[in-house]
Write a structure and sequence with these properties.
Length: 183
């Protein structure tokens, strides 16, 4: 698995990089050699934000954490990501064709631990409401304005610029994001 450690507005020492790489080596048991991992470190307030992203085939696994130092932030992000994988392992096992690269891990996990799954991991995802609506062509700025007028967290629209379906959304920091799918 290829690993990349990136830092924004801060220096990452070689011993820290080696420690992070050692911590991330545990993910080799989850993913096959086709996976790619990326750790982004950046200062946030008086702490450090660590964003951990793995891309394996067409699947993404992601977590982030903020802590006082970089290593603590990375460790928390790793723990969160492992928790997500364990939480959804039964769903991934049911979709063995899509998650075949995790088959060895899922089989080993099933043999070593008695299966005491939480309610959320036993349930299937439930769609409790469906909604259809007309989609309008507009610019991203118009979409943000429309989203604000509707007091929604996101808005799906047809981009005037690209002719593709896009999404604008409100970020946690109060700014806005734009999702432009590639298809």
């Amino acid at each position: 698995m290829k690993m990349e450690i990136l830092s924004l507005d801060m220096q990452v020492s070689d011993p820290l990089k080696k420690s992070i790489e050692q911590k991330l080596s545990k993910f080799k048991r989850y993913f096959d050699d086709h996976g790619r991992g990326e750790v982004k470190l950046q200062p946030e307030g008086k702490g450090v934000r660590a964003e951990l992203t793995f891309k394996v085939r067409t699947h993404y696994f992601r977590s982030e954490s903020v802590a006082e130092d970089a290593m603590s932030a990375v460790e928390h992000a790793i723990d969160r990501l492992e928790g997500h994988i364990r939480k959804y392992k039964s769903r991934m096992k049911k979709r063995v064709k899509d998650y075949s690269y995790m088959q060895a891990f899922l089989d080993a996990e099933e043999q070593t631990l008695p299966s005491e799954e939480s309610e959320t991991s036993r349930e299937e995802f439930k769609i409790i409401r469906r909604k259809s609506f007309p989609i309008s062509a507009m610019t991203p700025d118009e979409a943000i304005l429309q989203m604000e007028l509707l007091d929604h967290a996101f808005l799906i629209f047809l981009s005037d610029e690209t002719g593709k379906v896009c999404v604008v959304y409100r970020r946690k920091d109060g700014d806005f994001g734009l999702l432009e799918p590639e298809y």
